[in-house]
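User: What would this chain look like folded?
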Amino acid sequence: MAYNHGREERKWRIWKEAEETILRKCGVDEDTIEKIRIYDRADFNATRRFYRYLNDIGEYLEGMADAEQPIEIHSVADLLDEIENENLYRALLAVDKRTLQIVLLKIQGYSIKEIAPLVGLTTGAIYARLDHLRKKLKQFKR
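Assistant: Here's the prediction, encoded as structure tokens.
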């Protein structure tokens, strides 16, 4: 949901009027109330700028996501074709085909429980294979 400046302004004014009424009942002088109002307004403006900036970034990222065409990966060969780093490519070629199939299914959004019957392994075996692959890729990163 986008930041609605008008709604937030109304909420701030209602809150501020209620607070100032309480302060006046407690005997706080008008100069102090005015200083508090100025401070709170500066805080409100800082928050408003932050949310507008955040909204602008969100719109930018949504635009970028719409502009960039998602890569369709349907097979292990497609997965390997998308690897641009030669060393990473060679490291993945050394991995067995079943582990690459698990990686492909994870990329496609399958859960471990859904992958297990598809590749004929237990969930524990899948976790172990992914853990071994992570360790291998960590060594590659160095």
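Helices lie at 5-25, 30-67, 76-81, 86-93, 97-107, 112-119, 123-141. If you want, I can go into more detail on any region.
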